[in-house]
Amino acid sequence: MPRTDNTDNNVETSRGAGHETIRELSLQERKPRSPWEIAWVKLVRHRLAVSAGIILIVLYALALFADFIAPYGFDSEDRTKSYLPPVRVRMVDAQGDFHWRPFIYDSKFQFDEYYRREYPPDKTK
Predict the structure, then answer these.
(1) Angle, to 10 degrees, between the axis of helix 35-45 and the axis of helix 47-64?
(2) How large is the C-alpha radius of gyration of the chain?
(3) How far is 18 from 44, CA to CA, in rounded Å?
(4) Mean pLDDT estimate for the chain
(5) Which of 2, 33, 57, 80 could join 37 via S-S bond, C-beta 3.0 to 4.6 A?
(6) Structure letter (DSSP) for residue 113
(7) Can you tell me the distance from the alpha carbon of 99 to that of 120, in angstroms, rounded to the nearest whole number?
(8) Which residues does residue 115 pair with via DSSP β-bridges, in sequence order?
C-alpha cells in the first residue's frame, strides 16, 4: 500500500499487505463508551463548567458547616453595640483552653483621654 498524504483522516502505513490503517486500528481497539462517560469528558474539557462546579462544591460545604462558621443566630444581636468595630474571632480563651466552636469576647464602652470611643475586650466572661 502506498503512503497517502495526511490531508484526510486515513493515515496508512507503507508496510505492505495485511496491515490495517492506524485510524482503523484505533477504532477497533477503542472501548465503547457510555453516554455518561461521553458527557463527563465533555464536561471536564469545559473550563467554565469546571470552575462553576468547584464554586458549587465550596458553597455546599459552607452550607454543611454553617453552624461552625456562623454559630450565632440572627436573634442574638445587641443593638446597643451597633457602633462596635469588628471583633476578632477566637478559638483559644484567656486561660489557653482550645474550643471547637469559635467565640468572641464581650466589649466594654469607654472613652480615652481624647474622648475617642474605645471598646476593650472583657475577658472575665
Answers:
(1) 90
(2) 33
(3) 39
(4) 78
(5) 33
(6) T
(7) 22
(8) none
Nearest to 90 by CA among 100, 81, 82: 100
Please state whether beta strands 106-107 and 121-122 pair in parallel, antiparallel, or not at all (unpaired).
antiparallel
Interatomic CA distance for residues 19 and 76, integer angstroms: 79
Query: How do residues 44-91 score in pLDDT, each as one tens digit?
Result: 999 999 999 999 999 999 999 988 888 777 787 777 777 778 888 888
Query: What SS3 state is found at 8?
Result: coil
Asked if residues 111 and 118 have their Cβ atoms less than 8 Å apart, the reply is yes
pTM above 0.90, yes or no: no
pLDDT at site 108: 80
